[in-house]
Structures are given as structure tokens and as C-alpha cells.
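User: Could you go from structure to sequence for me? I need the amino acid at each position, not a summary. C-alpha cells:
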């Protein structure tokens, strides 16, 4: 069975439920990171991501090296059931929203990123980091890092509230068996990494237009690839080939050949 919810999402949801049911009462200090690691059987990075999500949702507040449960009466109403919502939206609807948010996010990141932000983005896409115990979901980690680089708390909260929906496609993966899922995901992850590298270059150069354009192209191609694969799977297409684009090739051509040459001379 394909696991659609990450460990971070599961831990966040579990702690959120305990807070909303007041099993973890307002004002109580959460267990230490070490205790939570032991309780959930995960590493500190996973726990820290879950705690960060709870902070963004207003469910806990940081206090020194620990975290205190906030009063649920003083936070925003619970967000929609994203797992249920994910079953109701189409791929086009999902990518419409992602383009609306993430294209502008890429531009802000290019405008505002500091060296620490750029290093965080870079580490999310480095193959050696990914294959040696780096981020469990590197593609998601890249987009997370880009949002942080925009330095806009309101954007972070909006993104965080929709994050589980943006990266969860149960209506799509259920059409494939496990072997197909592994193959398709591996190919799409590599495609995403290539585009992420190009977006990183634009952010590093503080090229706002290039970053926004590359992000739009990235999301548009990923959307078309999904739709093409679904049509092929459902037999709606009269041919067997999936969506074709130079960046989908095993040995992609130079990025400049697909219309994303640098907008100005770089030194």
C-alpha cells in the first residue's frame, strides 16, 4: 500500500489532535525532542519539522529550547481535512493554486534570499546529500526552503496550511501498481531536481524574472506529465508515449535550448 502521508504529517496530526482534544492542555510543556523521538520512533529532524508545523498553526509556542501548548480557543479554526480535499480536487486545480503561490514565491526568494537561505536550498537538491541520509522528501524540502527564503511569515502560514495537499496525490498514484509508482516517482523526482537546480541558479543570481519563469515552467511541465500519464493509463490517448519535453530526456539539452537562457550576461 502506498503511504501518502509523511511521518512529519502523521506526527503533526497526532499532536494537533491531542491539543484540540485537550489531552495536552494549554500551558503544558511538550515532552523534550528526545522523548518525542523515542515516542514516535523517528529522528530529531522529523520531530523538529513537526514542531515547526505546529508553531506555524499556532498550536504551540517556542519557549527557550522547548515548546508550550497554546490555548486552542485563541487559534484559527482547524484547517480543512486535506486528505479528504485531496480526493476532490483535480490535477489542474491543484497546479493552478501551486502556480499562483509558488511562482511569486520564487520571485521573492530571488529578491530576498541571504546566503544561509541559498545554502539551505542547495542542500535540498544535492544528489550526494539526498542519497546519504539527507532530506526524506528532497523535492518537498526544496519548496519548503524556497518559501523560507521569501522571508514572509504570512506566506509561510498559507503555504504550511496547504503543504499536505500540494504534495499528496492519492487520486493519481492509485492508478498504478507499486512497481510503476517507484519507476514514475524516480523519473519525476529526477526531472524536478533538474528544474530545482535551474531555479536555484536564478535565486543565487537574484534574478527575479528568471526564477519566476523557471518555476512556472517547472510546475507546468510536471502537471502536463501527470495528465499525460493518466490519459495513457486510462487508455484515452491514441499512442503510448507520455508527455515529451527536453527536460524529460535522460540526457537533457542545455537549458538555454528550451527557452530559459539567462536573461542577461552573467559573470
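Assistant: Here is the amino acid at each position, in order:
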Amino acid at each position: 500500500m502506498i503511504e501518502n502521508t509523511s511521518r512529519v504529517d502523521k506526527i503533526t496530526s497526532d499532536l494537533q489532535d491531542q491539543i484540540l482534544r485537550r489531552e495536552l492542555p494549554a500551558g503544558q510543556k511538550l515532552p523534550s525532542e528526545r522523548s518525542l523521538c523515542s515516542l514516535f520512533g523517528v529522528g530529531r529532524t522529523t520531530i523538529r519539522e513537526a514542531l515547526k508545523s505546529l508553531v506555524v498553526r499556532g498550536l504551540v509556542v517556542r519557549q527557550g529550547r522547548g515548546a508550550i501548548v497554546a490555548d486552542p480557543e485563541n487559534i484559527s479554526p482547524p484547517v480543512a481535512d486535506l486528505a479528504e480535499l485531496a480526493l476532490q480536487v483535480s490535477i489542474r486545480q491543484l497546479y493552478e493554486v501551486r502556480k499562483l503561490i509558488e511562482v511569486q514565491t520564487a520571485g521573492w526568494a530571488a529578491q530576498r534570499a541571504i546566503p544561509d537561505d541559498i545554502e539551505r536550498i542547495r542542500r535540498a537538491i544535492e544528489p550526494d546529500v539526498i542519497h546519504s541520509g539527507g532530506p526524506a522528501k528532497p523535492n518537498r524540502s526544496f519548496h519548503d526552503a524556497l518559501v523560507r527564503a521569501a522571508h514572509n511569515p504570512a506566506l509561510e502560514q498559507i503555504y504550511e496550511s496547504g503543504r499536505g495537499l500540494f504534495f499528496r496525490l492519492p487520486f493519481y498514484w492509485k492508478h498504478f501498481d507499486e512497481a510503476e509508482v517507484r519507476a514514475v516517482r524516480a523519473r519525476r523526482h529526477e526531472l524536478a531536481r533538474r528544474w530545482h537546480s535551474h531555479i536555484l541558479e536564478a535565486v543565487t543570481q537574484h534574478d527575479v524574472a528568471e526564477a519566476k519563469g523557471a518555476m512556472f515552467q517547472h510546475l507546468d511541465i510536471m502537471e502536463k506529465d501527470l495528465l499525460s500519464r493518466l490519459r495513457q493509463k486510462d487508455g484515452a490517448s491514441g499512442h503510448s508515449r507520455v508527455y515529451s519535453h527536453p527536460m524529460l530526456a535522460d540526457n537533457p539539452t542545455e537549458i538555454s535550448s528550451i527557452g530559459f537562457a539567462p536573461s542577461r550576461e552573467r559573470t
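One structural detail worth keeping in mind: Residues 7-74 form a domain with the Arc Repressor Mutant, subunit A fold (CATH 1.10.10.10).
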